[in-house]
Amino acid sequence: MAAYNFSIVHLCVFLCYTISLVSYVYGSGFTVDLIHRDSPRSPFFSSADKASDRAENAIRRSISRCNHFGKKSSSAKSSNKLGSNITSTVFLDGVGDYLMLLAVGTPALPLLAIADTGSDIIWFQCSPCDVCFPQITSPIFAPQNSSTYIDIPCATKACDALSSVSNAIPCDGAACKYNISYGDGSISIGNFARETLTFQSTSGAETNISVSNMAFGCGHNNTGIFSARGAGLVGLDAGPFSLVSQLGSSIDNKFSYCLVNINSKTATSKLTFGSNPKLVSGSGVVSTPIVFKARSSFYFLTLEAISVGETRIPFNTSSTTSAVPLEQGNIVIDSGSTITSLPTDFYAAFEAEMKKAITIDPVPDPNTSLSLCYPGDSDPASVPTVTAHFTGADIVLSLLNLFRLNGEFACLAFRPTDGLAIYGNVVQNNFIVEYDLVNKLVSFMSTDCEMA
Protein backbone atom coordinates (compact mmCIF):
# COMPACT_ATOMS: atom_id res chain seq x y z
CA MET A 1 0.00 0.00 0.00
CA ALA A 2 2.90 2.36 0.70
CA ALA A 3 4.15 2.00 -2.87
CA TYR A 4 0.70 2.85 -4.20
CA ASN A 5 0.43 6.00 -2.07
CA PHE A 6 3.90 7.10 -3.15
CA SER A 7 2.88 6.86 -6.81
CA ILE A 8 -0.31 8.86 -6.28
CA VAL A 9 1.60 11.66 -4.49
CA HIS A 10 4.11 11.80 -7.35
CA LEU A 11 1.34 12.02 -9.92
CA CYS A 12 -0.67 14.64 -8.05
CA VAL A 13 2.35 16.90 -7.62
CA PHE A 14 3.09 16.56 -11.33
CA LEU A 15 -0.54 17.31 -12.21
CA CYS A 16 -0.65 20.51 -10.13
CA TYR A 17 2.64 21.66 -11.64
CA THR A 18 1.58 20.88 -15.20
CA ILE A 19 -1.74 22.75 -15.01
CA SER A 20 0.11 25.98 -14.24
CA LEU A 21 2.26 25.76 -17.41
CA VAL A 22 1.66 26.37 -21.10
CA SER A 23 3.59 24.82 -23.99
CA TYR A 24 7.22 25.65 -23.57
CA VAL A 25 9.98 25.62 -26.18
CA TYR A 26 13.12 24.21 -24.59
CA GLY A 27 16.15 25.14 -26.68
CA SER A 28 18.35 22.16 -25.88
CA GLY A 29 15.81 19.34 -25.81
CA PHE A 30 14.69 17.52 -22.68
CA THR A 31 15.63 14.67 -20.36
CA VAL A 32 13.57 12.46 -18.07
CA ASP A 33 14.54 10.21 -15.15
CA LEU A 34 14.49 6.43 -15.46
CA ILE A 35 14.14 4.54 -12.19
CA HIS A 36 14.72 0.81 -12.17
CA ARG A 37 11.83 -1.15 -10.72
CA ASP A 38 14.11 -2.98 -8.30
CA SER A 39 15.83 0.18 -7.05
CA PRO A 40 14.97 1.43 -3.54
CA ARG A 41 14.13 4.74 -5.24
CA SER A 42 11.30 3.09 -7.14
CA PRO A 43 7.75 3.60 -5.82
CA PHE A 44 7.23 -0.11 -6.56
CA PHE A 45 10.15 -1.33 -4.46
CA SER A 46 9.27 -3.70 -1.63
CA SER A 47 11.81 -4.50 1.06
CA ALA A 48 9.96 -7.80 1.57
CA ASP A 49 11.18 -9.07 -1.81
CA LYS A 50 14.38 -11.10 -1.77
CA ALA A 51 17.23 -10.10 -4.07
CA SER A 52 17.06 -13.54 -5.65
CA ASP A 53 13.33 -13.10 -6.36
CA ARG A 54 13.95 -9.75 -8.08
CA ALA A 55 16.72 -11.27 -10.18
CA GLU A 56 14.56 -14.23 -11.17
CA ASN A 57 11.61 -11.99 -12.08
CA ALA A 58 13.90 -9.89 -14.29
CA ILE A 59 15.10 -13.01 -16.09
CA ARG A 60 11.52 -14.18 -16.65
CA ARG A 61 10.62 -10.78 -18.08
CA SER A 62 13.54 -11.10 -20.50
CA ILE A 63 12.33 -14.51 -21.63
CA SER A 64 8.82 -13.12 -22.17
CA ARG A 65 10.40 -10.21 -24.00
CA CYS A 66 11.56 -12.53 -26.77
CA ASN A 67 7.88 -13.18 -27.53
CA HIS A 68 7.17 -9.43 -27.44
CA PHE A 69 9.43 -9.02 -30.48
CA GLY A 70 7.14 -11.24 -32.51
CA LYS A 71 4.54 -8.45 -32.60
CA LYS A 72 3.12 -6.47 -35.50
CA SER A 73 4.07 -2.81 -35.19
CA SER A 74 2.79 0.74 -35.79
CA SER A 75 4.22 4.31 -36.61
CA ALA A 76 4.21 9.20 -38.32
CA LYS A 77 5.84 12.58 -38.02
CA SER A 78 5.16 15.86 -36.28
CA SER A 79 6.27 19.42 -36.86
CA ASN A 80 6.41 20.36 -33.17
CA LYS A 81 9.62 22.25 -32.43
CA LEU A 82 11.22 21.53 -29.07
CA GLY A 83 14.78 22.48 -29.83
CA SER A 84 17.30 19.64 -29.95
CA ASN A 85 17.27 17.92 -26.57
CA ILE A 86 14.65 16.48 -24.10
CA THR A 87 14.79 14.06 -21.01
CA SER A 88 12.05 12.14 -18.99
CA THR A 89 11.43 9.73 -15.99
CA VAL A 90 11.18 5.96 -16.48
CA PHE A 91 10.49 3.05 -14.12
CA LEU A 92 11.08 -0.68 -14.68
CA ASP A 93 7.88 -2.68 -15.08
CA GLY A 94 5.66 -4.98 -17.10
CA VAL A 95 6.57 -6.16 -20.59
CA GLY A 96 9.37 -3.58 -20.72
CA ASP A 97 11.89 -2.69 -18.06
CA TYR A 98 10.98 0.94 -17.54
CA LEU A 99 7.98 3.18 -16.95
CA MET A 100 7.87 6.79 -18.04
CA LEU A 101 6.01 9.63 -16.33
CA LEU A 102 4.11 11.93 -18.69
CA ALA A 103 0.71 13.63 -18.92
CA VAL A 104 -1.97 13.50 -21.60
CA GLY A 105 -4.72 15.93 -22.55
CA THR A 106 -5.98 19.36 -21.45
CA PRO A 107 -6.31 19.57 -18.51
CA ALA A 108 -3.27 17.30 -18.23
CA LEU A 109 -3.78 13.86 -16.73
CA PRO A 110 -0.46 12.39 -15.46
CA LEU A 111 0.16 8.74 -16.35
CA LEU A 112 2.83 6.09 -15.99
CA ALA A 113 3.46 4.24 -19.26
CA ILE A 114 5.94 1.60 -20.38
CA ALA A 115 8.82 3.20 -22.31
CA ASP A 116 9.74 0.67 -24.98
CA THR A 117 12.49 0.77 -27.63
CA GLY A 118 10.83 -2.31 -29.14
CA SER A 119 7.44 -0.69 -29.87
CA ASP A 120 6.38 1.82 -32.49
CA ILE A 121 3.18 3.44 -31.29
CA ILE A 122 2.01 5.46 -28.29
CA TRP A 123 -1.19 4.24 -26.66
CA PHE A 124 -3.03 4.68 -23.37
CA GLN A 125 -6.13 3.13 -21.88
CA CYS A 126 -9.23 5.23 -22.54
CA SER A 127 -12.76 5.32 -21.25
CA PRO A 128 -15.27 4.05 -21.99
CA CYS A 129 -13.56 0.67 -21.63
CA ASP A 130 -14.85 -2.38 -23.45
CA VAL A 131 -12.07 -4.34 -21.72
CA CYS A 132 -9.28 -2.69 -19.70
CA PHE A 133 -6.62 -4.04 -17.37
CA PRO A 134 -6.64 -2.68 -13.78
CA GLN A 135 -4.94 0.73 -13.49
CA ILE A 136 -4.03 1.68 -9.93
CA THR A 137 -1.74 4.72 -10.23
CA SER A 138 -4.08 7.11 -12.06
CA PRO A 139 -7.59 7.37 -13.48
CA ILE A 140 -8.12 6.00 -16.98
CA PHE A 141 -7.90 8.83 -19.53
CA ALA A 142 -11.33 10.16 -20.55
CA PRO A 143 -10.99 11.83 -23.98
CA GLN A 144 -14.35 13.56 -23.62
CA ASN A 145 -12.87 15.60 -20.74
CA SER A 146 -9.96 16.96 -22.80
CA SER A 147 -10.30 20.09 -24.93
CA THR A 148 -7.37 19.08 -27.16
CA TYR A 149 -8.44 15.52 -28.07
CA ILE A 150 -9.19 14.95 -31.80
CA ASP A 151 -10.03 11.66 -33.50
CA ILE A 152 -8.06 11.09 -36.70
CA PRO A 153 -10.56 10.63 -39.58
CA CYS A 154 -10.52 7.55 -41.78
CA ALA A 155 -9.80 9.35 -45.05
CA THR A 156 -6.40 10.74 -44.05
CA LYS A 157 -2.75 9.95 -44.85
CA ALA A 158 -2.14 9.18 -41.17
CA CYS A 159 -4.86 6.55 -41.10
CA ASP A 160 -3.63 5.07 -44.38
CA ALA A 161 -0.08 4.87 -42.99
CA LEU A 162 -1.34 3.21 -39.81
CA SER A 163 -3.19 0.53 -41.76
CA SER A 164 0.08 -0.63 -43.32
CA VAL A 165 1.64 -1.45 -39.94
CA SER A 166 -1.37 -2.20 -37.71
CA ASN A 167 -3.76 -5.10 -38.01
CA ALA A 168 -6.48 -3.97 -40.38
CA ILE A 169 -9.76 -2.72 -38.92
CA PRO A 170 -12.55 -1.62 -41.27
CA CYS A 171 -13.09 2.12 -40.91
CA ASP A 172 -16.52 3.05 -39.57
CA GLY A 173 -16.73 6.12 -41.79
CA ALA A 174 -15.52 8.54 -39.13
CA ALA A 175 -12.75 7.69 -36.66
CA CYS A 176 -9.60 5.82 -37.67
CA LYS A 177 -9.06 2.60 -35.66
CA TYR A 178 -5.86 0.87 -34.58
CA ASN A 179 -5.29 -2.75 -33.53
CA ILE A 180 -1.87 -3.57 -32.06
CA SER A 181 -1.05 -7.16 -31.15
CA TYR A 182 2.11 -8.48 -29.50
CA GLY A 183 3.84 -11.83 -29.72
CA ASP A 184 2.97 -12.60 -26.10
CA GLY A 185 -0.77 -12.36 -26.88
CA SER A 186 -1.33 -8.84 -25.51
CA ILE A 187 -3.47 -6.46 -27.55
CA SER A 188 -4.62 -2.85 -27.62
CA ILE A 189 -7.53 -1.75 -29.83
CA GLY A 190 -9.24 1.63 -30.08
CA ASN A 191 -9.41 5.01 -31.82
CA PHE A 192 -6.36 6.55 -33.46
CA ALA A 193 -6.30 10.19 -32.34
CA ARG A 194 -4.23 13.31 -31.66
CA GLU A 195 -3.60 14.87 -28.29
CA THR A 196 -1.26 17.09 -26.26
CA LEU A 197 1.43 15.23 -24.34
CA THR A 198 3.41 16.80 -21.52
CA PHE A 199 6.80 15.61 -20.25
CA GLN A 200 8.52 16.52 -17.01
CA SER A 201 12.04 17.58 -17.96
CA THR A 202 14.97 17.26 -15.57
CA SER A 203 17.55 18.92 -17.84
CA GLY A 204 18.59 22.49 -17.18
CA ALA A 205 16.02 24.42 -15.19
CA GLU A 206 13.46 21.78 -14.31
CA THR A 207 10.26 22.40 -16.24
CA ASN A 208 7.56 20.71 -18.31
CA ILE A 209 7.46 20.32 -22.08
CA SER A 210 4.05 20.23 -23.80
CA VAL A 211 3.78 18.92 -27.36
CA SER A 212 0.52 19.27 -29.24
CA ASN A 213 -1.02 17.20 -32.02
CA MET A 214 0.73 13.92 -31.14
CA ALA A 215 -0.76 10.81 -32.77
CA PHE A 216 -1.62 8.06 -30.30
CA GLY A 217 -3.90 5.11 -29.73
CA CYS A 218 -6.83 5.67 -27.40
CA GLY A 219 -7.31 2.10 -26.24
CA HIS A 220 -10.81 0.90 -25.39
CA ASN A 221 -9.91 -2.82 -25.47
CA ASN A 222 -6.60 -3.67 -23.79
CA THR A 223 -5.71 -7.14 -22.56
CA GLY A 224 -2.53 -9.06 -21.82
CA ILE A 225 0.37 -8.97 -19.36
CA PHE A 226 0.37 -5.19 -18.90
CA SER A 227 1.08 -3.94 -15.38
CA ALA A 228 -1.61 -2.30 -13.25
CA ARG A 229 1.02 0.32 -12.35
CA GLY A 230 1.09 1.55 -15.94
CA ALA A 231 -1.51 3.14 -18.19
CA GLY A 232 -0.19 2.22 -21.61
CA LEU A 233 2.95 2.26 -23.71
CA VAL A 234 5.27 4.84 -25.28
CA GLY A 235 6.95 3.40 -28.37
CA LEU A 236 10.55 4.52 -28.93
CA ASP A 237 11.52 2.51 -32.00
CA ALA A 238 11.87 3.86 -35.55
CA GLY A 239 8.25 3.39 -36.62
CA PRO A 240 6.54 6.51 -38.04
CA PHE A 241 4.18 6.91 -35.06
CA SER A 242 6.70 6.32 -32.28
CA LEU A 243 7.45 9.21 -29.92
CA VAL A 244 10.93 9.56 -31.42
CA SER A 245 9.70 9.74 -35.03
CA GLN A 246 6.93 12.19 -34.21
CA LEU A 247 9.32 14.53 -32.41
CA GLY A 248 11.58 14.14 -35.46
CA SER A 249 13.69 17.14 -36.45
CA SER A 250 12.73 19.04 -33.30
CA ILE A 251 15.07 16.68 -31.41
CA ASP A 252 17.57 16.29 -34.29
CA ASN A 253 16.10 12.80 -34.83
CA LYS A 254 18.17 11.59 -31.89
CA PHE A 255 17.61 10.14 -28.45
CA SER A 256 19.86 8.55 -25.86
CA TYR A 257 19.88 6.98 -22.43
CA CYS A 258 22.37 6.35 -19.65
CA LEU A 259 21.39 3.40 -17.44
CA VAL A 260 22.82 3.15 -13.93
CA ASN A 261 23.60 -0.25 -12.50
CA ILE A 262 20.72 -1.92 -10.67
CA ASN A 263 22.76 -1.98 -7.47
CA SER A 264 22.82 1.83 -7.31
CA LYS A 265 20.98 3.03 -4.20
CA THR A 266 20.50 6.70 -5.08
CA ALA A 267 21.15 7.58 -8.73
CA THR A 268 18.56 7.52 -11.51
CA SER A 269 18.95 6.62 -15.16
CA LYS A 270 18.32 9.28 -17.80
CA LEU A 271 16.46 9.26 -21.10
CA THR A 272 17.28 12.23 -23.34
CA PHE A 273 15.44 13.35 -26.46
CA GLY A 274 17.78 15.36 -28.68
CA SER A 275 21.54 15.60 -29.06
CA ASN A 276 23.26 14.55 -25.84
CA PRO A 277 25.91 17.18 -24.99
CA LYS A 278 27.78 14.59 -22.90
CA LEU A 279 28.27 12.30 -25.90
CA VAL A 280 31.31 14.05 -27.34
CA SER A 281 33.33 12.95 -30.35
CA GLY A 282 36.74 11.43 -29.79
CA SER A 283 38.44 8.18 -28.92
CA GLY A 284 35.90 7.36 -26.20
CA VAL A 285 32.94 7.16 -28.60
CA VAL A 286 32.35 4.18 -30.88
CA SER A 287 29.53 3.90 -33.41
CA THR A 288 27.92 1.05 -35.32
CA PRO A 289 25.33 1.14 -38.13
CA ILE A 290 21.65 0.53 -37.46
CA VAL A 291 20.28 -2.04 -39.91
CA PHE A 292 16.61 -1.39 -40.68
CA LYS A 293 14.81 -4.42 -42.07
CA ALA A 294 11.70 -4.63 -44.22
CA ARG A 295 8.44 -4.67 -42.25
CA SER A 296 10.28 -3.98 -38.99
CA SER A 297 11.16 -0.82 -37.10
CA PHE A 298 13.39 -2.44 -34.46
CA TYR A 299 16.98 -1.29 -34.02
CA PHE A 300 19.07 -4.12 -35.47
CA LEU A 301 22.86 -4.06 -35.08
CA THR A 302 25.51 -6.43 -36.44
CA LEU A 303 27.41 -8.33 -33.76
CA GLU A 304 30.47 -9.85 -35.41
CA ALA A 305 32.03 -11.61 -32.42
CA ILE A 306 32.66 -11.63 -28.68
CA SER A 307 36.20 -11.87 -27.29
CA VAL A 308 37.01 -13.53 -23.97
CA GLY A 309 40.53 -12.42 -23.20
CA GLU A 310 42.48 -13.10 -26.41
CA THR A 311 39.98 -15.66 -27.74
CA ARG A 312 37.62 -14.29 -30.38
CA ILE A 313 34.32 -16.17 -30.82
CA PRO A 314 32.63 -15.36 -34.15
CA PHE A 315 28.86 -14.90 -34.25
CA ASN A 316 28.62 -17.70 -36.83
CA THR A 317 29.96 -20.38 -34.50
CA SER A 318 28.42 -23.73 -35.35
CA SER A 319 30.04 -25.94 -37.99
CA THR A 320 26.86 -25.80 -40.06
CA THR A 321 26.94 -22.01 -40.37
CA SER A 322 30.66 -21.20 -40.35
CA ALA A 323 30.79 -20.88 -44.15
CA VAL A 324 27.69 -18.70 -44.32
CA PRO A 325 28.32 -14.92 -44.61
CA LEU A 326 27.58 -12.99 -41.42
CA GLU A 327 23.99 -11.73 -41.40
CA GLN A 328 23.80 -7.96 -41.24
CA GLY A 329 21.48 -6.87 -38.44
CA ASN A 330 21.71 -10.11 -36.46
CA ILE A 331 20.83 -8.70 -33.02
CA VAL A 332 18.27 -6.20 -31.67
CA ILE A 333 19.47 -3.63 -29.14
CA ASP A 334 16.75 -3.27 -26.50
CA SER A 335 16.56 -1.29 -23.27
CA GLY A 336 13.53 -3.31 -22.15
CA SER A 337 15.31 -6.69 -21.82
CA THR A 338 17.45 -7.34 -18.76
CA ILE A 339 19.35 -10.35 -20.12
CA THR A 340 21.26 -10.59 -23.41
CA SER A 341 19.99 -13.48 -25.57
CA LEU A 342 22.39 -15.13 -28.02
CA PRO A 343 21.94 -17.93 -30.58
CA THR A 344 22.35 -21.31 -28.87
CA ASP A 345 25.66 -22.35 -30.47
CA PHE A 346 27.17 -18.89 -30.06
CA TYR A 347 26.13 -18.76 -26.42
CA ALA A 348 27.54 -22.25 -25.74
CA ALA A 349 30.95 -21.27 -27.17
CA PHE A 350 30.95 -18.01 -25.17
CA GLU A 351 30.04 -19.77 -21.92
CA ALA A 352 32.71 -22.43 -22.48
CA GLU A 353 35.40 -19.76 -22.87
CA MET A 354 34.19 -17.96 -19.74
CA LYS A 355 34.40 -21.19 -17.76
CA LYS A 356 37.94 -21.75 -19.05
CA ALA A 357 39.06 -18.23 -18.17
CA ILE A 358 37.50 -18.07 -14.68
CA THR A 359 39.39 -20.35 -12.32
CA ILE A 360 36.71 -20.34 -9.61
CA ASP A 361 34.37 -23.35 -9.56
CA PRO A 362 30.87 -22.45 -10.79
CA VAL A 363 27.81 -23.15 -8.65
CA PRO A 364 24.32 -24.15 -9.85
CA ASP A 365 21.66 -21.47 -10.11
CA PRO A 366 18.90 -22.61 -7.71
CA ASN A 367 16.30 -21.19 -10.11
CA THR A 368 17.95 -22.82 -13.17
CA SER A 369 17.21 -19.74 -15.29
CA LEU A 370 20.84 -18.86 -16.00
CA SER A 371 23.39 -21.57 -16.57
CA LEU A 372 26.70 -20.07 -15.38
CA CYS A 373 26.82 -18.78 -11.82
CA TYR A 374 29.51 -18.17 -9.20
CA PRO A 375 29.39 -17.32 -5.50
CA GLY A 376 28.50 -13.66 -5.08
CA ASP A 377 31.66 -12.98 -3.08
CA SER A 378 34.02 -14.40 -5.76
CA ASP A 379 37.23 -12.57 -6.61
CA PRO A 380 36.38 -10.17 -9.47
CA ALA A 381 40.03 -10.19 -10.57
CA SER A 382 39.45 -13.67 -11.97
CA VAL A 383 37.00 -12.37 -14.61
CA PRO A 384 38.62 -11.93 -18.05
CA THR A 385 38.28 -8.91 -20.30
CA VAL A 386 35.22 -9.40 -22.51
CA THR A 387 34.66 -7.32 -25.65
CA ALA A 388 31.56 -7.20 -27.85
CA HIS A 389 32.66 -6.60 -31.45
CA PHE A 390 30.01 -4.78 -33.44
CA THR A 391 30.65 -3.53 -36.96
CA GLY A 392 32.92 -0.52 -36.42
CA ALA A 393 32.58 -0.58 -32.62
CA ASP A 394 34.40 -2.64 -29.99
CA ILE A 395 32.70 -2.39 -26.60
CA VAL A 396 34.64 -3.52 -23.54
CA LEU A 397 32.25 -4.89 -20.92
CA SER A 398 32.85 -4.48 -17.20
CA LEU A 399 32.17 -7.04 -14.49
CA LEU A 400 28.79 -5.43 -13.78
CA ASN A 401 27.88 -5.66 -17.49
CA LEU A 402 28.60 -9.38 -17.50
CA PHE A 403 27.02 -10.68 -14.31
CA ARG A 404 23.63 -10.23 -12.66
CA LEU A 405 24.23 -9.99 -8.91
CA ASN A 406 21.55 -11.14 -6.47
CA GLY A 407 23.46 -11.24 -3.20
CA GLU A 408 24.32 -14.93 -2.98
CA PHE A 409 25.14 -15.51 -6.63
CA ALA A 410 26.67 -13.76 -9.61
CA CYS A 411 25.22 -15.25 -12.81
CA LEU A 412 26.31 -14.56 -16.37
CA ALA A 413 23.65 -12.16 -17.68
CA PHE A 414 23.37 -13.98 -21.01
CA ARG A 415 21.14 -16.83 -22.14
CA PRO A 416 20.77 -19.04 -25.23
CA THR A 417 17.82 -18.59 -27.57
CA ASP A 418 16.51 -20.20 -30.73
CA GLY A 419 14.70 -16.96 -31.51
CA LEU A 420 15.75 -13.35 -32.00
CA ALA A 421 19.11 -12.33 -30.50
CA ILE A 422 18.72 -9.38 -28.09
CA TYR A 423 21.38 -7.07 -26.62
CA GLY A 424 19.85 -6.35 -23.20
CA ASN A 425 20.17 -3.54 -20.69
CA VAL A 426 22.67 -5.08 -18.23
CA VAL A 427 25.40 -4.92 -20.88
CA GLN A 428 24.37 -1.30 -21.57
CA ASN A 429 24.78 -0.12 -17.95
CA ASN A 430 27.23 2.78 -17.56
CA PHE A 431 27.23 3.64 -21.25
CA ILE A 432 25.65 6.65 -22.90
CA VAL A 433 23.82 4.97 -25.79
CA GLU A 434 22.69 7.38 -28.50
CA TYR A 435 20.42 6.58 -31.47
CA ASP A 436 20.88 8.79 -34.55
CA LEU A 437 18.02 8.00 -36.93
CA VAL A 438 19.23 10.26 -39.76
CA ASN A 439 22.74 8.81 -39.97
CA LYS A 440 21.49 5.37 -38.89
CA LEU A 441 24.02 4.94 -36.12
CA VAL A 442 24.03 3.79 -32.51
CA SER A 443 26.93 5.28 -30.53
CA PHE A 444 28.34 4.13 -27.19
CA MET A 445 30.48 6.02 -24.71
CA SER A 446 31.58 4.41 -21.47
CA THR A 447 30.75 6.67 -18.52
CA ASP A 448 29.61 6.67 -14.92
CA CYS A 449 25.86 7.04 -15.36
CA GLU A 450 25.48 7.95 -11.68
CA MET A 451 27.35 11.16 -12.46
CA ALA A 452 25.75 11.79 -15.87
Automatic annotation (TrEMBL):
Keyword entries, A-Z: Aspartyl protease, Glycoprotein, Hydrolase, Protease, Secreted
Peptidase A1 domain span: 98-445
Lineage: Eukaryota, Viridiplantae, Streptophyta, Embryophyta, Tracheophyta
GO molecular function, one term: aspartic-type endopeptidase activity
Domain of life: Eukaryota
Keyword Nucleotide-binding: no
GO annotation terms (biological process): proteolysis
Gene Ontology CC: extracellular region
Identification of the protein by name: Peptidase A1 domain-containing protein
Family stated for the protein in its record: Belongs to the peptidase A1 family.
CDD domains in the cross-refs: pepsin_A_like_plant
Pfam families, alphabetized: TAXi_C, TAXi_N
Subcellular location: Secreted
